[in-house]
Each structure stands twice: as structure tokens, then as C-alpha cells.
Amino acid sequence: MNRFSIARRVGIVGIIGNVFLFFIKIFVGIFSKSQALIADSLNSAGDVFASFMTWIGNKISSVPNDEDHNYGHGKAEYIFSMLISLSMMLLSFKMLIDAVLSIFNKNKVIFSWVLIVVCLITIIVKMFLYFYTRCLYKKENNLLVKANMIDHRNDFIITVFTTLAILFSKFGIYFVDGIVGIGISIWIFLVGVKIFIESYNVLMDSAIDRTSKKNILNIIKANDNVKRIGTLYSISVGYQYVVVITIYVDGNLSTVDSHEIADKLEKDIISNVKNIKEVIAHVEPY
Q1: What is the rounded CA–CA span in Å between residue 157 and residue 127?
Q2: Which of 21, 136, 179, 198 has the greatest number of beta carbons closer than 10 A?
Q3: DSSP secondary-structure letter at 111?
Q4: CB-side neighbour CA atoms (13 Å) of 46
Q5: Domain count of the chain?
């Protein structure tokens, strides 16, 4: 299973799971006249959006290269990851406002065992979605899958604390809901910022990481035919990189021999360094 089929499966499963939770919450919320549960159903609707972004972003990024996009459409993965991160930050901002207002207004959470049951169903579904997505993320380091995984984890933790707040309300302790809401909203915002920065760095063509660059240089240095290393540039094409290097070889070598050295280096780098799409080695006489 490649990274694109993994992201597609994560998106589809996420849509199904979140649509299921949305209808349960909205039905029980309207039936029990619980504004809290109706509001929470809107959070599930936001999760449907995140899962849909994963699906559509993956669909675009999996399109192969063409005349207009010589290195494919891989950056779509990071554009849609950025959209998910923005939705997380907006959600956290709304949660923060609601939590602060609930403390100042001394809102009372109305206890109901029906609410507890819905929360438990949400916890079970979100736990499954989180571990399922986490398992697939380990197979392929896909930022779209990671954003979805974190979103499921956030919802799981939010619902656990929401359940605790509802249980506290049974004993007349109402302020816990607001305090927990403030803490979780700040945490979700920071997670959203982290995913945003990761996406932004790729979209701004940040260079390959230092460890990979060091591995590339070590491969070049291990070749006795390379007398000196010139420039080394890299540019991101989705989750992969194109690496451009300049090497200096014996000026007395023939053109054929010089290019054989370059060809071998290109193959060695692609074989031994992760996420390298292409290596272009320029040869100069030493």
C-alpha cells in the first residue's frame, strides 16, 4: 500500500466515522434539547471537513507529472494540510471564547446519562480512528494522514474531559468544564500552528533536512573519484526532494568516464537516502 492509497483510505474512513458521530450527536442533542451536544455535533461536522480535505488533497497530490507540472502535484498534500491546521486553530479560538464565557457566566452543565452514553460512543469511535490512522501513518510519513491522526486524538481527549466535566456536574461542580476547555483549546491551537509551519516550510521550498544532507555528503565523500564537492542544492516536490550537486573529478578523465561517476553517485544517493525523487550531478574538471 503506497502513501496515496493510505491517505485515501484514512480520508474515507474518517468521513464515515465523523458523519456517524454527527448524526448521533445532532439527533440526541435536538431530542434532549442539549445545546452542548448540538454544539459538539458542529465539531463533528468540522471533522468531516478535515477528512474530506484529506481525501481531496490526496487525490490531487497522487496525480502524476505532466507538461505543466514536471514533478507531479505532491505539494497539494501540504496545501490541504495547511487548510486542516487553519480549521484546527479556528476551532480552538471558538472553544477558548466559549470556555472563558462559561466561567464568567457561571454556566451549569445539565447532567444526563444520555449525554454520557453519547460521549462514550464518541470516545470509542475516535479511539478506533486515531489508532487506525496512527498505524497507517507509521507506514508512510504523510502530513495529511498526520493532520487527520492528530485531529482524531484531539477529539478523543476533548470528549474524555467533556465526560469528566459532565460527571462533575452531577455533584454540583461546574467550573471544571470551563477550565478544561481553556487548556484544551490552547493545546489544539499550538498543534495547529505546528502542522501549519511544517506545511509552510515545504511550500516555501525549504532545503532538505540536515541529517539527509549529511548522508548525501558522506556518500559523495566515499567515492574516491570525487576530488572536491562543490554546491549542493535541494528543492521540495511534495514530500520528496530534487537534489542538485556539483562534483569535481580528474580533468584528464574522458567525458564518458566522468558521467559514469556522476550516474553512480545519483543512483547511490536515491537508493540510500529517503524521499529523494531525483539527483542531478554536474561534473567539473579538478
Answers
A1: 9
A2: 21
A3: P
A4: 21
A5: 2
